[in-house]
Design a protein that fits this description.
By secondary structure, this protein is an alpha+beta fold. It has helices spanning about 25-35, 50-55, 95-100, 140-145, 150-155, 165-170, 220-235, and strands at about 1-5, 10-15, 40, 80, 120-125, 135-140, 160, 190, 195, 205, 210-215, 240-245, 250-255, 260, 275-280, 285. The protein binds N-oxalylglycine and manganese (II) ion.
């Protein structure tokens, strides 16, 4: 394995591994590096969706995304993060499915709308772009660690209401539409604002701006202000690695201690196709 650190606080690239056929010793090393660096980039992984699924399953069960129209018709575990339909046609701006997907341009953590959110995500860049479409990843341990004592005291024991439908409410276009798309039904859930990672035992901020409705049992406006402050604090460049994609990069991230967003790109002219598998979480987030 050839290792290269990507940012002072987050991310490592691993070359010379073949994810189609990874031996147990290498897999164990990868898992350790993942816990240490939070984000792993594996360049040059020309793999099929089936290989991608098999690699994901080495970590456990895979999620099926609640949005029906973004599941691959062949493999429901593949979430199609793409502005191109399965026939290869660019999806027009006015389409509900694009408007939903575009919400990944907002900072978020995958499946924060579930009672047991995902442990991690593995994304395969199939058709990538360098004109926008970079993906940003923030180290939420470090963002938490650097908060001053009085803020740490203030946010201790707080819970946040997360709701899948908030993703839709935040979309200017979708919120006005009658047909908002088809999704599995998901009730709102409460998650700690500061969580403890079950493997590393370290505390981190748990933010997912696209599903966070409010702080529970807190003045609504003051709660929103506090969340906005924490979001702005966490997305400073000292905590963020920006990934510029090459085709056949595989990037995996830990949803328990990072959040991410996609930089806008011209979705009317550029084809950006990414396939994701999502690792089912093993427990509810632990309050730190
Ligand atoms: C995701 C996502 C990242 C990207 O797959 O979870 O938010 O780069 N997209 O498209
Ligand atoms: Mn995402």
């Amino acid at each position: 394995m050839k290792l290269r650190q990507l940012h002072k606080n987050i991310g490592i690239s691993i070359e010379n591994v073949n994810l189609k056929n990874i031996d147990e010793i290498t897999f164990k090393k990868v898992k350790k590096l993942w816990m240490k660096y939070l984000i792993i980039v594996f360049p040059n992984q020309n793999i099929s969706d089936e290989d991608h699924i098999n690699f994901g399953k080495k970590f456990g069960e895979l999620e099926v995304h609640p949005s029906l129209s973004h599941r691959s018709s062949k493999n429901p575990e593949i979430y199609r993060v793409s502005n191109v339909d399965e026939k290869g046609k660019i999806i027009p701006n006015k389409e509900t499915s694009w408007q939903y997907l575009k919400q990944s341009w907002l900072w978020h953590t995958d499946s924060s709308f579930r009672k047991i959110p995902s442990n991690g995500s593995i994304l395969h860049g199939i058709s990538t772009t360098k004109k926008g479409g970079n993906t940003l990843f923030a180290n939420m341990y470090k963002a938490y660690e650097d908060l001053n004592k009085s803020i740490k005291e203030k946010i201790k024991n707080l819970s946040v209401l997360h709701d899948h439908d908030h993703i839709i409410s935040l979309s200017k276009e979708l919120s006005k539409k009658k047909d908002k798309g088809s999704y599995d039904k998901l009730d709102p859930v409460a998650h700690p604002l500061v969580r403890r990672h079950p493997v590393t035992n370290k505390p981190s901020l748990f933010l997912s701006p696209h599903t966070m409705v409010k702080i529970i049992d807190y003045d609504y406006d003051q709660g929103r202000q506090l969340l906005d402050f924490l979001i702005h604090h966490s997305i400073q460049s000292k905590y963020v690695y920006k990934h510029t994609w090459n085709d056949d990069d595989i990037v995996m991230w830990d949803n328990r201690c990072t959040m991410h967003s996609v930089e806008p790109f011209n979705n009317n002219t550029i084809k950006r196709i990414m396939h994701r598998v999502t690792l089912v979480g093993d427990q509810e987030p632990i309050m730190a």
